[in-house]
UniProtKB/TrEMBL annotation:
Location of region: Disordered: 30-59, 284-329
UniProt feature coiled coil, ranges: 182-258
UniProt-recorded name of the protein: Peptidase M23
Pfam families: Peptidase_M23
Biased composition (Gly residues): 310-325
Length: 463
């Protein structure tokens, strides 16, 4: 039983509606999946930002930590900042690849359906062509018979030529039947030609669809290849980051004991130094007198020079002793140890992020790139200029007394000395060049101030 035209259209509409519903369902699922991936990516980027912000604090907390350990910790911070982003990018690439593969399956099925339709319509056109040819042949035959007069029977001829009423009726019926046959033949020809035209138009539309589907399939192949390459690259990166994370974690663990021992040795050395400085202070009466006299003579010479130069007075910024721009003059007892003072880390207690203990950062760190001149904060005698495993190349200067208190300063992590032990230095005179010697992660100046042999916050004594 064949479905009528109306029923066929209804079935087509129903099929289209089903496809639309399925398409909407797939779109919703894809959208939900995409939203989840986007949320993961946003969360990963927030983690990366947090790790980046943490890095600055981490660098400060790792100051005076073994350089190898500090590097491993900072490298781990970088890896752990990138890892969640790379994992989110991998998820996105895998989702894109899966979507491209699903699209390839859909396109392949649609292309197969279109090609099947093309074959069916082509067969229908071939069959319809035979029907058109047959209808045309019938019409041609009728035309030939009409031309010979075989089919031309008038009403008058029927009446005059009839032998009886029965003969008349029979002859008239034959004539009417021929006319109906001609009409049917014409109708069949018209229908066959209309069907042929419709099928040709449908075939053309199907072939255009096939062309479009092939183009879409080719484009999807390129998209799938890119997605596959991206997924492969991100997978390799994630695996590499995880391996680095494991390696760095193991490296940090393996260095903890040595780092703790080194820090313990540095603290012991610091305590011994403070004891040594206090012993010097106890015997310092004569040296204080000599320092005061030396400073008085320098100030008097400076005033005399200003008077001779007609400058109208003013203090001295100290000797050069090695070039560079002298630090700004100050009215305080201690002056800046660098020409452009910029504090990068202050005095105070810190919690070590790896070794998990509190320790005192006993000085102020100033930005000083490698080779930057470092200046004496005040005039005095160089007590020591030596290398220490923690402080690196460092200089200690005894400035005598200020308001009844013994004042000494220390300049650490120098790359080069400009003075020697026992030497008198003027305020602002170069004592060395900034470096990264000792337990340190980068070039800078670690500056300490000792009041009566104990460290204090340098910023309480500086301008």
């Amino acid at each position: 039983m064949h479905a009528g035209p109306g029923k066929g259209k209804n079935l087509a509409r129903a099929a289209t509606a089903v496809l639309l519903v399925l398409g909407l369902g797939l779109g919703a699922a894809s959208s939900a999946s995409a939203d989840d991936i986007d949320d993961r990516r946003a969360a990963a980027e927030q983690q990366a930002k947090a790790k980046k912000a943490e890095r600055a604090t981490l660098q400060e907390d790792l100051d005076e930590t073994n350089a190898k350990l500090a590097k491993a910790v900072l490298d781990l911070n970088t890896v752990e900042g990138r890892l969640p982003v790379a994992q989110a990018e991998l998820a996105r690439a895998q989702a894109d690849l899966e979507a491209a593969r699903r699209e390839a399956e859909i396109l392949a099925q649609r292309l197969q359906d279109a090609q099947d339709q093309e074959s069916a319509v082509t067969a229908q056109i071939a069959s319809g062509s035979h029907q058109v040819d047959a209808a045309r042949a019938d019409i041609a035959q009728m035309a030939r018979e009409a031309a010979r007069g075989q089919g031309r029977v008038s009403a008058l001829g029927i009446v005059t030529g009839a032998q009886s009423t029965e003969d008349f009726l029979q002859t008239y019926a034959v004539s009417s039947s021929a006319a109906r046959s001609q009409a049917r033949a014409l109708t069949q020809l018209q229908d066959a030609e209309a069907v042929a035209r419709n099928q040709e138009a449908r075939l053309q539309a199907i072939r255009e669809t096939i062309t479009q589907l092939k183009q879409a399939a080719d484009a999807n192949v390129a998209t799938a290849q890119r997605a596959e390459q991206e997924a492969s690259d991100r997978k390799a990166e994630v695996e590499q980051l995880i391996a680095q994370q494991q390696q760095l974690t193991a490296e940090i663990e393996s260095q903890k004991a040595a780092a703790l021992a080194e820090i313990s040795a540095n603290e012991t050395s610091q305590k011994a130094l403070e004891g040594e400085l206090k012993a010097i202070i106890a015997e310092q009466k004569d040296r204080d007198d000599r320092i005061a006299e030396q400073r008085r003579q320098e100030e008097e010479a400076a005033r005399e020079q200003d008077k001779n130069n007609g400058s109208g007075g003013g203090g001295t910024s100290g000797g050069g002793g090695g070039g560079g721009v002298a630090p700004p003059s100050t009215s305080t007892f201690l002056g800046w140890p660098t020409a452009v003072p910029y504090v990068t880390s202050g005095y105070g207690w810190r919690f070590h992020p790896v070794l998990h203990y509190w320790r005192l950062h006993a000085g102020t760190d100033f930005r000083a790139y490698c080779g930057t001149p470092i200046y004496a904060s005040q005039s005095g005698y160089v007590v020591k200029a030596y290398y220490d495993s923690g402080a690196g190349n460092n200089v200690i200067i005894d400035h005598g007394s200020d308001r009844g208190q013994s004042i000494m300063t220390r300049y650490m992590h120098l790359s080069q000395f400009s003075v020697r032990a026992g030497q008198w230095v003027s305020k602002g005179q170069q004592v060395g060049l900034a470096g990264a010697t000792g337990t340190v992660t980068a070039c800078h100046l670690h500056f300490e101030v000792y009041v009566n042999g104990t460290t204090v916050d340098p910023m309480t004594r500086l301008p």
